[in-house]
Design a protein that fits this description.
This is Cold shock-like protein CspD. The chain is of the alpha+beta class and about 90 residues long. It has a single domain (about 1-85), classed as OB fold (Dihydrolipoamide Acetyltransferase, E2P) (Beta Barrel). The protein is about 20% helix and about 45% strand. Strand 1 (about 1-10) and strand 2 (about 15-20) form a beta hairpin. The protein starts with a strand and ends with a helix. About 15% of the residues are buried.
Length: about 90
């Protein structure tokens, strides 16, 4: 899987673009390819992991997963556990 950052994402339209870490190409990102529970959206600057698929209109990012969601959950859980230990 590749990594990159969300360039922008329009919730109303359900799509945006990702800038891959290994290239200058903008990759199309559609909400239907975001792998998460609940409301599928991305935020500008958010680090993501994804696969790519070529199309006649350019390269599409697929199987998109936000990288900071799990990290933030673990940090929040650690902070709660540390405060409970005091």
């Amino acid at each position: 899987m590749k990594t990159g950052k969300v360039k922008w994402f329009n919730n109303a339209k359900g799509y945006g673009f990702i800038q891959a870490d290994d290239s200058n190409e903008d990759l199309f990102a559609h909400y239907s390819t975001i792998q998460m529970d609940g409301y599928r959206t991305l935020k500008a600057g958010q680090p993501v992991q994804f696969d790519t698929r070529p199309s006649d209109k350019g390269t599409h990012a697929i199987n998109i997963r936000a990288l900071d969601v799990a990290a933030n959950s673990n940090e929040n859980e650690k902070a709660v556990n540390e405060s409970n230990a005091s």
